[in-house]
Specification:
By secondary structure, the protein is α+β, with helices and mostly antiparallel strands. The protein is about 50% helix and about 15% strand.
Length: about 160
C-alpha cells in the first residue's frame, strides 16, 4: 500500500474509512478545540441559563478561554437600555454557567450594547411563512433536483420552529 502526502490537511492518507476529525482542515480543528464546545453549548442553552426576560434582550457574542495572560471571558451583546438588568445578574449568570458545565468555565462577563434596528427586520420576516430571505430563495429555486429543493425548504421550516 502506498501513502500519499498531503501537506495542507493531513500528514498521510490510507485507503478506507477515516475519522471525521481527520478530514477537517487544520484551522477549523483549532477553532473547535479552543472554544467550540463551551461556546456552542452556551448558545444552545442560553435561554435556560439567563431566563426568559434576559433571553429576549441579550445573546452571547464570543467566548475567550483562559490562558497565562487573562481569565476566561464571555462577551454578551445587550440591547441598548437593558444593560443595567444584565449588570445586576452577572454573578448569577456566572454561577449558572459554572454549575452547568461543572467546572470554572467563566470568570468574567463583558457587556457590549447594540441598537435595536435588527428587531424591525425580524418582525417583517415573521410575517412571511418561510424563514429564508430572498437571496437564499433565489439560490434554492436555481437547484435543478426537485428532491434537494424540497429538502432545503423543509430545513428552513425546521429552523423557523426553533
Amino acid at each position: 500500500m502506498q501513502f500519499k502526502k498531503y501537506t495542507k490537511q493531513r500528514n498521510g492518507s490510507i485507503q478506507g474509512l477515516r475519522s471525521f476529525k481527520d478530514t477537517l482542515p487544520k484551522n477549523i480543528k483549532k477553532f473547535i478545540s479552543k472554544r467550540g464546545q463551551i461556546y456552542s453549548e452556551t448558545l444552545n442553552n442560553w435561554k435556560h441559563i439567563v431566563g426568559e426576560n434576559l433571553f429576549k434582550v441579550c445573546y452571547p457574542k464570543s467566548y475567550k478561554n483562559s490562558n497565562k495572560f487573562g481569565v476566561s471571558t464571555l462577551t454578551i451583546m445587550v440591547r441598548r437600555g437593558n444593560e443595567v438588568d444584565l449588570e445586576y445578574s452577572k454573578k448569577e449568570i456566572i454561577t449558572k454557567m459554572n454549575t452547568f458545565f461543572e467546572d470554572q468555565v467563566v470568570e468574567k462577563i463583558k457587556l457590549t450594547s447594540f441598537n435595536d434596528e435588527r428587531k424591525i427586520i425580524v418582525e417583517k420576516n415573521d410575517l412571511n411563512l418561510n424563514v429564508t430571505n430572498n437571496k437564499f430563495k433565489d439560490k434554492i429555486s436555481n437547484v435543478k433536483n426537485e428532491k434537494i429543493k424540497k429538502s432545503l425548504l423543509e430545513l428552513t421550516k425546521v429552523f423557523k420552529k426553533k
